[in-house]
Amino acid sequence: MTVTKGGFPGGATYCGTKHFVIGVSEAVRGELRETPIEVSCVMPGIVNTELAAGLQQARGVKNVNPEDVADAIVEALRFPRFDVFVPKSIGPINSVLGLLPRRGREAFAHALKADRVLAEADPNARRAYELRAARSEPGLESGEAEKQLTP
After folding, report:
1. By the 8 A CB rule, do 28 and 12 touch?
2. Phi/psi of residue 92, each to 5°?
3. Packing angle of the helix pair 90-99, 102-111 (nearest 10 deg)
4. pLDDT tens digit string along 57-114?
5. First to last CA, the chain
6. What's this model's pTM, rounded to 2 decimal places?
7. How many domains does the chain have?
8. Is 73 within the bounds of a domain?
């Protein structure tokens, strides 16, 4: 369990999708190893967006801005690498935690309060985001579905 790769209380679906993306990306990277195609996984901590409304900051890991993530993506396009951590300080934390047994990783996540970030989100601060997300259709803006279905 790390700050960006882990299963955290209050975020089963979110964490599951992150695990899926990382696993698929690792597999595709392996399949494309002998080609000039690069695969990267961008793994930000908490990004200051509407999705992060009401989340506490984990100890020792600063929240980042969307521009920080964009800069990291541009850098990965210029200098390809698989693991793109934002902020970069998450990378060494991830490496060290990878050496620990599960109980050690869980204790470290608890010390950072990373195990409480999602579970203890402020529901009042998240209300507007949750309502908008509940009414949205993924990938479709208002009226866009009709446009796509119209010949």
Report:
1. no
2. -60, -35
3. 140
4. 777 778 899 999 999 999 999 999 999 999 998 888 888 888 889 898 888 888 877 7
5. 48
6. 0.75
7. 1
8. yes
